[in-house]
Amino acid sequence: MEQFDVVVVGGGPAGSAAAWAAANQGCSVAIIDKAVFPRDKPCGDGLLTNGVDALRTLGLADQLKSFHRIDGAEFRYREGSVRHDRPSWGVTAPREHLDALLLAQARAAGAKVTEGTKVTEPVLDGSTVCGVRCTTSTGAQLTVPARVVIAADGAHSILAKTLRTTAWRTQPMLNLVRAVVDAGPAGSEHTMYLELLEQDGITLPAGGWAFPLGDSRLNIGVGVFSTYRNWKSVNLQRLFDSYLTSLRNAGVVTQTSDSARNLRAQGSLRGWIVGLGRGIRPAWAPGLMLAGDAAAVASPLSGAGIFKALKAGMIAGRVAAEALDGAGPQDLSQYERDLARSWGRADDLGVLLLRLVSRPALARASVRAAMRFPKLALAAGLHLDTVRSGGDAKAVA
Ligand SMILES: Cc1cc2nc3c(=O)[nH]c(=O)nc-3n(C[C@H](O)[C@H](O)[C@H](O)COP(=O)(O)OP(=O)(O)OC[C@H]3O[C@@H](n4cnc5c(N)ncnc54)[C@H](O)[C@@H]3O)c2cc1C
């Protein structure tokens, strides 16, 4: 098969953004994805202003109108709730729709897209990655040579294993489930709900969200951080049910028929993991860069990963093009430096805070403190999650 300058594995946000950036700099680019688009991806579908900005950069400003606007946020906790309205917090964008748009942008920029083809392993020349081996939907084996490979194949990245990293054992991650629920005629169509969750009376480093999708539908999910000592003992289906009850008690959800079990049987409740805080460092090897969830780049305090995936992808695409124009793909350390420059300290501070509040007593105390000064806490959280992550907090619309 023909050699490409850049082969991108995975056509999610990270992969499409990487391909778009590399193609725009004149590289020949191929994207290979095992799925056929449009495809769903378990996600909360929420994008804050930094994600919206990234979509504008990728040329999707006009398409933003088709997404559902969020202009209110309600933070709930045991003793009460705090509400904060802004002209726009961001949007919800169902991933089936968003990812198909992003892939189309990459294709329009010149990337060749191959769907339904699974990458099985890298091709190595010594210790340099110089292509990938794949299996097509018909079972045919294919080798695709590349000068640079960008692995954007998600949280269970096959290519991340090439780096033989032990990062997963030490770096934090979030274990999550989500479902799309018909909430009934209640709540606000443009408010997002967030809640710190408990199990058996213990405040966990675990959260629940309910994001509005329009037409009374909510994307509801829960997640627990692996920095909690007993995180493996947390039953996410049980946690989901107790969060659903809390949303019913608050009048956000009025229908009573759904439960984690039903939603799972319908295929709506699905789980996944997200690696946090640039968990894999360095995120490159000769001929290879990891982007998005493959590099565990999601925000440490919220698990928001779409914006981080878009940004890491754009950086990886640019660095690939620059390397191919310059000293070649052996040394891609510029990628690591650019990631660090984009959000290094925010990530490290976020991971530190996360580890601190992952002790139930400290989690409780920090929520109490945050609720005494909600606007300050919110501003600090937003600053870390949005502004320090390379976005600006200006209104979306
Ligand atoms: C339940 C849940 C809720 C979340 N909510 C939010 C949220 O509200 N907001 C937010 O910003 N983030 C959220 N996240 C995180 C967000 O979903 C991820 O960070 C984001 O999808 C990362 O994008 P990506 O492109 O790196 O990977 P992905 O979106 O996972 O894309 C990877 C792509 O690679 C393909 N692929 C995988 N393996 C192979 C292979 N071997 N060969 C070929 N192709 C392959 C897959 O088919 C897929 O298309 C959530 C995550 C979860 C699990």
Secondary-structure map with pairings?
Elements: E1 4-9, H1 13-24, E2 29-32, E3 46-48, H2 49-57, E4 68-77, E5 80-92, H3 95-108, E6 112-114, E7 118-125, E8 128-135, E9 141-151, H4 167-170, E10 173-182, E11 191-199, E12 202-214, E13 217-225, H5 236-249, H6 260-265, E14 270-275, E15 284-285, E16 288-290, H7 306-325, H8 333-356, H9 360-372, H10 374-387
Parallel strand pairs: 1-2, 1-9, 2-6, 4-11, 9-16
Antiparallel strand pairs: 3-5, 4-5, 7-8, 8-9, 10-13, 10-14, 11-12, 12-13, 15-16
Helix pairs in contact: 1-3, 1-7, 2-7, 7-8, 9-10
Bound molecules: flavin-adenine dinucleotide (FAD).
Helicity range: 25-40%
Main sheet attributes: strand count, strand direction, barrel closure:
8 strands, mixed
Q: What are the segments in which pLDDT stays under 50 over at least 5 consecutive residues?
A: 387-397
Small-molecule components bound: flavin-adenine dinucleotide
Which outline best applies? globular
CATH superfamily membership of the largest domain: FAD/NAD(P)-binding domain
Strand-pairing-aware structural class: alpha/beta
